[in-house]
Write a structure and sequence with these properties.
With about 350 residues, this protein is an alpha/beta fold. It has two domains: about 15-160, Murein tetrapeptidase LD-carboxypeptidase, N-terminal domain (Rossmann fold, 3-Layer(aba) Sandwich); about 165-345, Glucose Oxidase, domain 1. It has ten helices and 16 strands. It has helices at about 25-30, 30-45, 60-75, 100-105, 115-125, 135-140, 145-160, 215-220, 250-260, 285-305; strands at about 15-20, 50, 80-85, 110, 130, 160-165, 170, 190, 195-200, 205-215, 235-240, 270-275, 310-315, 330, 335, 340-345. Helix 8 packs across helix 9 (about 250-260) and helix 9 (about 250-260) packs parallel to helix 10 (about 285-305). The mean pLDDT is about 95.
């Protein structure tokens, strides 16, 4: 990856944008957040979403999903590509993608979670993409977009330039069920934000970003989808975990395994998203959520102390599986200013 990343041209209000399901066709089972997301794209962002054959097709093959991606990127009337949601099947899609085709028709791609596979694929072909901004989760948030999320999305989609990440004053915790219309009649429950936690913050680090969802990165490593570790030297590592809520021990083990590969020491700085600490299977109260996040942070610090003791780390950043969510350029430049406690991304 070049130290001078290439940013695809940005869409403008009135443009057509592709809405795809490169992993799980969530709109087929959960139309309510999807249709809300489409409506907000049209009415609040002035964009015209365009569906493709597999956007709502459950069980679409990797070849079919790859064909939709190729079609969206090569269509000259499409100016950006947005994922509907994540999933768990995208790792099987990657072998069917034409990297040169996507590079030569580069467009901004937005997605996260299982879309880490595609973000990484675009990264290794020199295309800056965007970690965040899925249609069902961010655009389809019940009640309204969070103001921090909306500001970040607008800057990443339309404006470009530098953008300082802000700390949220309030964060959403519990989720409503997507199949229940009552979920979308009010804002999600929230609690006061607790700010970020800085570790080894005596320096300023700047580099292009790489990373994504930690569980998916671990799958990618098992599938031998990572480059030689030297390819990541000097990058800012961006990590977050999913609604499956891996324990602090699991986080340590996944990071330890990447450390044994020699990967962790390549990154002078790492940003950890605020861990999702509530699910329908684990409806943690406020104290349990705080304990879970502290355990996960301890697991990560244990791995960093062993494999990357000089790395600057920032925890509980508003990125990934969290609300509000701020978009992170994937392969774009990030400056982590420890003394000023400031994170600046370039959209």
């Amino acid at each position: 990856m070049s130290d001078q990343p290439t940013y695809p041209p940005k869409p403008r209000p009135g443009d057509r944008v592709a809405v795809l399901s490169p992993s799980f066709a969530g709109p087929a089972l959960f139309p309510l957040p999807y249709e809300l997301g489409l409506r907000r794209l049209r009415e609040e962002f002035g964009l015209e979403p365009v569906e493709y054959p597999t956007t709502r097709k459950l069980g679409a093959s990797p070849e079919e999903r790859a064909a939709d991606l190729h079609a969206a990127f090569t269509d000259p009337s499409i100016t950006a590509v947005l994922a509907t949601v994540g999933g768990e099947e995208q790792i099987s899609l990657i072998p069917y993608l034409d990297g040169e085709l996507l590079r030569s028709h580069a467009k901004p791609f937005f997605g996260y979670s299982d879309n880490t596979n595609l973000l990484d694929f675009l990264w290794r072909h020199g295309v800056v993409s965007y970690h965040g901004g899925a249609v069902m989760t961010e655009f389809g948030r019940p009640g309204a977009l969070h103001p921090l999320t909306e500001a970040s999305l607008r800057a990443a989609l339309f404006d470009g330039g530098e953008f300082d990440l802000r700390e949220a004053e309030d964060v959403s915790t519990e989720l409503g069920r997507w199949e229940d219309p009552a979920t979308f009649e009010q804002l999600p429950a929230s609690e006061p934000g607790t700010g970020t936690y800085w570790h080894r913050s005596d320096r300023v680090v700047e580099g292009v970003s790489w990373g994504g969802n930690l569980e998916i990165l671990h799958w990618m490593a098992a599938a031998d989808r990572l480059l030689p570790v030297e390819a990541y030297a000097g990058c800012v590592l961006v990590l977050e975990t999913s609604e499956e809520m891996p324990s602090g021990t699991e986080v340590y083990r996944m990071l330890r395994n990447l450390g044994e590969r020699g990967l962790l020491r390549q990154f002078p700085a790492v940003l950890f998203g605020r861990a999702m600490a509530w699910s329908f299977e684990q409806p943690n109260d406020a104290e349990q959520r705080a304990e879970y996040r502290a355990e996960q942070r301890a697991g990560a610090l244990r791995a960093l102390d062993a494999y990357a003791p000089d790395t600057t780390a920032v925890f509980d950043v508003d990125l990934g599986h969290t609300q509000p969510q701020q978009v992170i350029p994937y392969g774009g430049r990030i400056r982590v200013d420890g003394p000023a406690r400031r994170i600046t991304v370039t959209y």
